[in-house]
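Dear colleague,

Thank you for sharing your sequence with our group. We've completed the structure prediction you requested, and as agreed, I am returning the results in plain text so they can be pasted directly into your records. Please verify that the sequence below matches your submission; if there's any discrepancy, let me know and we will rerun it promptly.
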Amino acid sequence: MRPHAAPGARAAAVSAQEWSWRHGGRRTPAVHGLDLDIAPGERVLLLGASGSGKSTLLHGLAGVLGGDDEGEAEGRLLIDDRPAAASRGRAGLVLQDPDAQLVMARVGDDVAFGLENLGVPRDEIWARVDEALRAVGLDLPLDHSTAALSGGQRQRLALAGVLAMRPGLILLDEPTANLDPAGVLEVRDAVARVADESGATLVIIEHRVSVWLPVVDRVVVLAGGELLADGAPAEVLDARAPELRAAGVWLPSDVPWHAPAPRAGSRNPLLTAEALDVARVPGSPVLRGVDARIDGGGILAVTGPNGVGKSTLALALAGLLRPEGGRLVADPELAQGARGEPWRWRSRELLTRIGTVFQSPEHQFLTGSVRAELEVGPHALKLPAAARTARTEELLGSLRLDHLAGANPFTLSGGEKRRLSVATALATRPRLLVLDEPTFGQDANTWRELARLIVGLRDEGVGVVAVTHDETFVEAIADRRLDLGPAASVDRPTSGATAIEVPR
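Please find the predicted structure tokens below.
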């Protein structure tokens, strides 16, 4: 969200007074009877399980929840004693999905957009644009295309656009979810610097608690849309650890689950990449010479910095992008009679052979309800109605989506959208599964359930590729790692780069 008020405003005060919000089409409120006061200049870490109402609260404060036709509000939600919906210029919001707030075709113009709306003098605009891009570590030409950015780079750009306007209330919804480890610390420190310099009030949603503890002075925990805990970080996290753990809160140093090692001799090659070159734009490879092997009964984690080409490689491995060079060799067990490399296969052939989960869940939603979304693949395979229903009910239960079966996929929380996108890929029971950031937005409980599901697929002989920045996932779940190494400039390909598989 881009503010529309004058920059340099004082720190904002926040107050929720018996505030509730029920999304249109839902029976129960996302937030219910919330009482909460945040003083000007406070730095609050907002925690809670996926779907606990955290994002709804931030959207309410930013004034972007919509009108009566999109939901129903009770009580009052105030910024500086005025309704939040009438105080949009006081808050800057970075959304879970950075694609939803990119508005311009070039990087510099996107950061400048809000400043131009504010009437900031031209000379000051470009000084602020440069400063914001440096602060978030996005070292790109101002005329670089926003369409060519990776997911993590788009996240940095969205944050730069908000920080450049220096709002009185900064609202961050999972601001580091798609960033590499170095980028996480870089962005956290940039946010802290801006808060120090401006004195702005800061509210951050983040599942990984330890990253933000050094820069916050208060922790607020929601559960089921209601206030569960509120206080100083040590007071809340130490004194109420068992209760928070049960509610799905990630506590520092906790690992929800360690996967057992795969059975000896259970792996068999499904897909082999030989000297693979991949590109989003034909003729401009972002990765060259990638060698990799994907085994049935194995989990391969693909890691590396933002912008190195992980998602592009994932699309090529999934048969959705034609490689620029090299080749992909499908084992007969995977091909099952399909001819040539996977990118040559028809969509119906891919359905039962390779399932794909995109980095942005919204990019693969097609219907108006969670249940209908899960039925798309089985229906395309022309399964009988009873078989479709059985698969759908099984996935709804295993991924904690049964209570959302009738909800519109686009109204789900970020973590719920991710679980739904994984479930849609599983609905056709593919032999190989390619996941881009599979644990994004998950609380500790849903992370554990998702991890167990993926490991269960491994034990059934399915091959899994997971592009991830989640080191906990790599260390606790993955069997092998494909590390793509440091990123080259996005203006030129990583000429000669060869990825090497590293045993876990």
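Summary note from our side: The radius of gyration is 23 Å.

Kind regards,
the structure core
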